[in-house]
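Form P-L/3: holo structure prediction, ligand iron/sulfur cluster.
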Amino acid sequence: MKVTFKHLFVPAVTIQYPDVRLTLPERERNRLYVNMDDCIGCDQCARACPVNCITIETVKSLPTEDLGKTSNGKKKALWVTTFDIDLAKCCYCQLCVFPCPTECIYMTDVYEFSEFERGGFIYNYVTLTPQEIEEKKNNYAKLEAEKAAQKAAAASAPKPPVKKVVPVNPSGGDNNPKTQSVESQPKANQPQAEKVDPTSSGENKEN
Ligand code: SF4
Ligand code: SF4
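OUTPUT (holo model):
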């Protein structure tokens, strides 16, 4: 009872959440957000993630398509057809944020995102519609098929005849002075023939 009565006269350390909310620090780590207008689909964030909770799929754009640039001037060349983050797996380490070349993935101040189903934690950030995604995939597949057909046609085309090289020297010898000079020189690793000094022989003629 003494402890209870003591606490009647000290200020409360708890708050009446959700009516009262604390001000969060500036560097808080909460729910991730991806600004898809600036995403170039480089996959660096997914590779940095230690728990593999980011899934990215891309499709190359056609040479005739212009996807524009990001807000920091990077040219876009890929259609991002999948960009999912499973926040149920995320450990809020923020390692995906730092490698992003366009700074389009970042932590927000949203921390109230409870769900009844686990699947509700998979956030899909793609802005293309399913029809558009299908169209981009089909366009790229068509382009690849055309390229393969062109390659096959080039491979099956008749090749020009190869000219025969007739040697200049009828005896078949090598007239190249460079080659000749190389052959006449002793090779670096070849052991030199020993010079025999007649005076150093076992027999002494004077004796
Ligand atoms: S905060 Fe960490 S765990 Fe979460 S998506 Fe980014 S890298 Fe992965
Ligand atoms: S690192 Fe940035 S630009 Fe690259 S895929 Fe991730 S969010 Fe997109």
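COMMENT: The chain is about 20% helix and 10% strand.
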